[in-house]
Amino acid sequence: MNILDGKILAAKIREELAAAVEEIKAEGGKIPHLAAVLVGEDPASQVYVRNKVRSCEKIGFKSTLIRRPADVSEDELLGIVEELNQDEDIDGFIVQLPLPEHIDENRVTLAIQPGKDVDGFHPVNFGRMAQGLPAYIPATPNGILEMLKRYEIETAGKEVVVVGRSNIVGMPMGILMALKAYPGNATVTICHSRTRDLAEHTRRADIVIAAIGRPNFITADMLKEGVVIVDVGINRVDDEDAPRGYRLVGDVDFDSAATKASWITPVPGGVGQLTVVSLLMNTLKASRGEVY
Ligand SMILES: Nc1nc(=O)c2c([nH]1)NC[C@@H]1CN(c3ccc(C(=O)N[C@@H](CCC(=O)O)C(=O)O)cc3)C=[N+]21
Ligand SMILES: [Mg+2]
Which sequence ranges are marked TM in the entry (predicted)? Predict the structure, then answer.
């Protein structure tokens, strides 16, 4: 069993991005600038956004964090989005999800100018991605592609089983793995809550991508010998012995799955690390005008 190490890979990519910033500075170009909008006090969202801002600082990007309380109105939020759309210094921005109940996430996502949608959540970016056109690919799927590429995991002709069909992970990941590209060219199955016999599918898989949001859901009995496991889950489970009273576990039971896997991502220190750097990679692309 080998580890797909997100921490090491993310550090390496941050070095590359920092070098790109140095080059931009030397040429007197514009420093990439990412903005993030954070609504409310959700603890996990605060951690993620903090990681994003800190990563910007580490590599020399500019970053702007806009915070509003959970009771912000939809109109005010749409106003912020419009300001960011117009702000010429901002290359890309994200509105951290989930948003409070009274705000229509779709409406907010649709308001983001696709050229600044470094999350790749706007349907224009989704559509372009699905057709293999230049697009911002959502951070988590983009991070997974980067991980497979840099560890030289073979994907052509492989059976890939994606568990989960969300707009931001499962669906795009399934499409990307089926596209004529590397990583890609795989035979893809997308499983979800209505799948009749999940284990029947996962047992055939050469690569399992787990994005279900259920702690330790995938176990060794559901896997084939030599499988590559990409665990997207980040679940907080109570643990009295842990310093914060909880610990993070994936959607895959790591110790169990590790007995079958040839490669596996840990949680934390796997996909999540790449999610953050992917956003930065997209921001650099935005500032260079590489997509639009
Ligand atoms: N508009 C929007 N864009 C997103 O990209 C987005 C979002 N909303 N909402 C929530 C999800 C989740 N997400 C993660 C970011 C960082 C880590 C990350 O840093 N993970 C660390 C551990 C972090 C911890 O200690 O909790 C790791 O896996 O090693 C994970 C997950 C971005 N998301
Ligand atoms: Mg809502």
Answer: none
Residue of 95, 109, 231, 275 to mutate, ligand 1, most atoms within 8 A of C-beta: 275
d(CA 262, CA 146): 18
Query: Is it true that the peptide bond before 243 is cis, omega within 30 degrees of 0?
Result: no
Architecture of the structural domain at 27-113 = 3-Layer(aba) Sandwich (3.40)
Helix, coil or strand: residue 78: helix
Just list the catalytic residues. 52, 96, 119
Q: pTM of the full predicted structure?
A: 0.96
pLDDT category, 282, cuts 50, 70, 90? very high
3-state SS, residue 262: coil
- What ipTM goes with this model? 0.92
Ligand 1 in reach of 179 Cβ (< 6 A)? no
CATH number of 139-272: 3.40.50.720
- Predicted confidence (pLDDT) per residue in 3-25, tens digit: 999 999 999 999 999 999 999 99
- Whether ligand 1 lies within 6 angstroms of the CB of 280 is answered as no
* Residues of each domain in the chain carrying CATH 3.40.50.10860: 27-113
pLDDT one-digit tens code per residue, 263-274:
999 999 999 999
